[in-house]
Amino acid sequence: MGPEGDVGERDIDRTRADGTDETGARSVDERSDESDDAPRRVTFSREGIRTGFATTVPIALGVGGYGIAFGVLANQAGLSVAEAALMSATVLAGASQIVAVELWADPIPVAAVLFTVFAINLRYSLMGAALEPWFRQLSPKQIYGSLYFMADENWALTMRDLTSGSGRGAFLLGSGIAMWVFWVGSTIVGAVAGGVVGDPTRYGFDFILAAVFVALAAELWEGRSSLLPWLVALGVAVAAAELVPGRWYILLGGLAAAVVEVIRYDG
Fold first, then answer.
1. 121 closest CA partner among 240, 260, 248
2. Under a CB-based contact definition with an 8 Å cutoff, are residues 156 and 220 in contact?
3. What is the mean pLDDT of the chain?
4. Is the Cβ–Cβ distance between 176 and 154 less than 8 Å?
């Protein structure tokens, strides 16, 4: 074989069996395969908790205004300050709590309250499923401890953080703790001041949650790819609100958008 062939053989010989050349560098093809095939590593650390908490405080402050409104309504429905605070601490779901106190009566319509709250909170099953690709790397204790503190707002922030590639599996827990602290604290404030505040809608408290969701939606917007599922969710939710009794429109809108995405990418 000629000189050029000898040079080619020497170059091949310098490439190690482990895929590195004589300088120890991976081949371009192998580096590409590693980055494409290897799942991102998710860790559960104090740094993730701190970041989640600090990131969520501004949102939690806004949600606190809604918590005050709930505390006022709970007071007007006859709940004590301790009962309202306990409800916020254990349920941590503003929309369902508002509906529950609106249905509050003597005697309490237990079946109606449970059924309505169940319908509203079914959306959390979809939210939890969205976190599964990252949470599969965590222990059950870490997963369920974090999910206890999951609300709409900190779920949206967690999705943004994880999809950025941060790998912070504890972000949901830290952000949820921030939500929990401000939600329970604001509930207490509202329940204590319930007799003084009167109708919370006079101060625009009823619009706070809508404003928070608009801000979160802007953060989750991914351009034209988001337009179709959002429009489908909106259309189905509006139609269901008119045709289906109760609060099922929340779940039905989310399910419709999920079906659209499955058809687009897996169909």
1. 248
2. yes
3. 78
4. yes
Long-range contacts of 207-211 (CB under 8 A, 24+ apart): 208/62, 208/63, 208/65, 208/66, 208/69, 209/63, 209/66, 209/94, 209/95, 211/62
CA distance 217 to 162: 16
Using omega within 30 degrees of 0 as the cis cutoff, is the peptide bond preceding 107 cis? yes
**Is the pTM higher than 0.90?**
no
CB 118 within 8 A of CB 97: no
Tokens of 102: 């609106």
Query: What does the alpha-carbon distance between residue 159 and residue 155 come to, in Å, rounded to a whole number?
Result: 6
How many whole angstroms separate alpha carbon 19 and alpha carbon 180?
50
Task: Answer yes or no: are the C-beta atoms of 209 and 70 closer than 8 Å.
Answer: no
Q: How far apart are CA 254 and CA 252, in angstroms?
A: 5
Rounded-to-integer distance, Cα 66 and Cα 88, Å: 12
pLDDT digits (tens, 9 = 90+) for 165-221: 999 999 999 999 999 999 999 999 999 987 676 666 666 665 655 665 666 566 566
- Contact of 116 with 247, CB cutoff 8 Å: yes
| pLDDT tens digits, one per residue of 71-109 | 988 888 889 999 999 999 998 888 788 878 877 766 777
- Any idea which residue has 């941590």 for tokens? 92
